Input
Amino acid sequence: MFDNWWRYKKIKLYAYGTLIATAVVVVIAAIMMFIMIFSTQNAECFNDDQTVAEAGQGIGGDWQDHNSNTYKAMRHAADRFQKELHMSGDNIAAALAVGLRESGFNPKAVNPGGAVKGIWQWGAGGINGDRYKDTQDNVESQVQLAINELKSTHKGALIDLATADNINSSLVAWDTKFEGVGVNDPQRRVADTLKTANEIKKVFALDFPGSINVFDHGNNNSGIGDNSTNANTSGLSEATCDSGLSSNDNGLPVKGQYSITGGYPNYGGLTGATHYGVDFQTTDHALSSSGGNVYAVHDGTVVAKSSDSTGGNWLVIKGTDNVFTYYGHAPTQEAIVVNNGDKVKAGQHISHQGQTGMATGIHVHFAVNTHDQFGWAPQSNGLKSPGDYLKLPQKVGTNVVVPNGPFDSDKK
Output
């Protein structure tokens, strides 16, 4: 009798102990995750005190007319962002301003050049991937898509919005983590967008704090958990600050006489379709000639080598400076003479100019990124202007790169 009683008591004690231990582990894990988030969001992540040199003209349209469809669409988005994500007024003003900048807040807006569509100009099956998928061309569906992404594949944006403390840092969070443009990218039109965001805050009465909960206990629409070990989907892995970019003087991806045939951030620099890198073409670029060789611009390690319908045959090198460089359009995989894991030196022959993928003319598409990627699509977080990294001729530019040439690679 006593033995049965004691056995029953031990089972109960063991069960209670297990529950208590589990609860302690969960609490500790939550505390550690909060520490990880907020310790990475230091003052260097966002330039909250950025001074906009020009006053900005703002973004026009009928959005201030309470009877307009644009106002109603923005009101719908603002209400849902507040109720479902608990975003602050500054967060919402920033998101709405970017929507105005990108599409006039028009859910039917389409940009064929970049194969993007919708309010926030999602990739729709072309050069920028297919985030849009089967989303309907209306406000309700597109706001739902944005919410779904913020809770899953683009949780890094939600985390940065949670730690943003004003409109400017909210704009940086949305642009860099949701739109995927660099903080200094001219496409951001900072002066105009910031002025518009401040006006939106007044018109829509968005003067309230936020209480974003980035830990949604796995209840997101994509099935991606908060503690996902899949590097492709971990929002926390993207929450760290951009490592920045320092220029190097190691040379160019080509040698000899060359021209810049495609600029940045658009093919024409500030005109033409969006372009996420710079195209280099040597005068002697025949597929059978060493004059068309492509060279590493820094010491590093090959971290990716693959092919797709956009970049053709391409490789990525992670430099010892933690900058990633992309070399696209090689004629074949065999033309890429290095492999994953290989150590390379600046100036080393690594590939050849080609015309595979979405390419017009034989060239190498060269891109610079300060974030590791998991698909290496042309548009991605951490993208930087190659002109800010390489020593290009003065007439080509730096932050904005304009096609020009020919030049001599031996002349700085």
